[in-house]
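In this supplementary section we document a worked example of the pipeline. Step one takes a protein sequence of length 224 as its only input; no multiple sequence alignment statistics are reported here. Step two produces a three-dimensional model, which step three serialises into structure tokens for compact storage. The input and output of this example are shown verbatim.
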Amino acid sequence: MAGQFQRETIIAVLLERYGRTFCSELGIDIARNTPSVLFRLLCASLLYSARIRTSTATSAARALTENGWTTAKKLAASTWEDRVGVLNAAGYARYDESTSRRLGQMAELLQTEYGGDLRRLRAAAAEQPAAERTLLMQFKGIGAVGADIFCREAQLAWPELYPFAGQTALASAQQLGIANDAQVLAGLVKRETLPRLIAALIRVKLARAQDDVIRLAGNQPGNI
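The serialised model returned by step three reads:
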């Protein structure tokens, strides 16, 4: 485990260079906690959880918004062919057909079970994180990875999820020597900064940039 000063410098580098949440990148103001922003995050969670480039998933998530599919009702009203076309144009070609089907099923289930509002799912789970994850994974296409993506970004809106990191972020944090669980990570930054730190850890791991982060941290003033 890195020393306190080294942890602080590593975290500073992470936040400066990689500390942008995926919601922020997609223009989703998750703190608003409205049906639309929560639904857009759910769609993004499905897209990001596929074995596909993060940049491609980002393009696909933006394309859904640009086509006006920002609520479960609007997406459920679209056709499978329309969704395939939009995903394909966004570069999501490898999974366009199966993902189009799952997006449609997800929107329909959300409409049927929760009136299109994930806040009702939260209420059904009695604001218990484990129950929320279980209900989220009832949507086809949202497995453990997708649920992790949703929870790590949604913890700004759903306080009961805090502190949430997920296995990928924790693996990255361990590789950098700064923490080995979510509680430790939460103790290193302000509450509102934790989602940015988690996103940074994810991005660094995806880019395999851990060595670069450590090198840059070592070059910070005060390090010898």
